[in-house]
Design a protein that fits this description.
Elements lengths: L2 H11 L4 H7 L4 H15 L4 E4 L2 E4 L1 H33 E7 L2 H4 L4 H8 L4 E7 L1 H9 L5 E6 L7 E16 L19 E4 L5 H12 L5 E5 L3 H9 L4 E5 L3 H7 L3 E5 L6 E9 L6 H11 L4
């Protein structure tokens, strides 16, 4: 017995005639009758009989229908579920961004993705650097735009898209504002205004300061950019920023100046990454190809 024969049996019983069932099944009535006769021969008992031109089930046929119908219903449900999963696999993608990364890339990728791939349903989220990295490591997202390189590096495939230098951000009246560049030693004794420990820039500056024997004094460690800028405007300390923001801030905030750090290791590096071994759908591969065009 083949599952198609079970489906045919159930469809015939849905009425009102064998011809109507054949039409629903995209078969000729002759082909449908032949399939049912083959099933009756295999079962060695009739499933239908005719009375006054009507096709009716035999007692054996009614028993077979009771046994077969739940199986066919389960099969149809399974086909529907697999179809939904297939559609989802082709058309749904989860992308995580480290905080600030979309604004740092040429052409905002959050907007570009929806415009370039209207057939794809995107689940987009923006998280602090280390949480975005952990999200990708746990395979909660398919693709990540991270501040990296991501750690541990052996767990990821990644490609660098852009490198920006860390800067000190100060009020124009701050004593350091006249400097053309700064080194990490210049931060000694200064109240530091920065993101918290979930951000890679914090660790880069703090780790380098410790290597130089400097214990930084923090006035603020927070992802709250409004509070961060407010304190700098009030000349409450030295902020840790990124070079790509300098032009934007010069245009919108005349009180603040960016001063680049001299140390070459203070680089804010944007990477596109995937977890090694994580399956990427056709949509995922297309988005990854697009991401590579953002490299500068």
């Amino acid at each position: 017995m083949e599952i198609r024969q079970m489906i045919y049996l159930v469809e015939i019983c849905n009425g009102p005639s064998l011809s109507a069932a054949a039409e629903r099944l995209y078969l000729t009535p002759q082909a449908l009758s032949k399939a049912i006769r083959a099933l009756e021969e295999e079962l060695k008992a009739p499933l239908f009989f005719r009375e006054k031109g009507r096709l009716l089930l035999t007692p054996f046929g009614r028993r077979v229908l009771r046994e077969v119908k739940p199986f066919v219903d389960d099969y149809n449900n399974l086909c529907e579920q697999l179809s939904r999963l297939s559609t989802q696999e082709r058309g749904r993608l989860s992308v995580v961004f480290a905080h600030g990364v979309p604004n740092a890339l040429v052409g905002n990728p959050v907007e570009e993705l929806a415009q370039r791939y209207p057939e794809v349903t995107f689940d987009l989220m923006e998280l602090p650097d280390l949480l975005a990295e952990q999200n990708l490591l746990n395979e909660e997202s398919d693709i990540g735009f991270l501040v990296g390189p991501p750690q541990p590096q052996q767990e990821f495939w990644y490609q660098t898209l852009k490198r920006c230098h860390l800067c000190a951000v100060v009020n124009k009246d701050h004593p350091l504002a006249s400097h053309k560049s700064l080194c990490i030693d210049d931060l000694a004794g200064q109240p530091i205004i920065t993101k918290n420990t979930l951000f890679r820039a914090y660790h880069m500056v703090d780790d380098l300061a410790k290597q130089h024997g400097i214990a930084l004094q923090y006035a603020l460690r927070s992802p709250d950019e409004i509070l961060w800028i407010s304190m700098l405007e009030k000349n409450k300390g030295v902020g840790i920023g990124v070079s790509f923001l300098s032009q934007e801030l010069r245009q919108t905030d005349q009180l603040l100046v960016h001063i680049p750090f001299e140390e070459p290791q203070l680089v804010w590096e944007i990477c596109v990454a995937t977890k090694k071994g994580h399956y990427l759908s056709a949509a995922g591969k297309a988005v990854l190809d697009y991401a590579m065009t953002l490299a500068e």
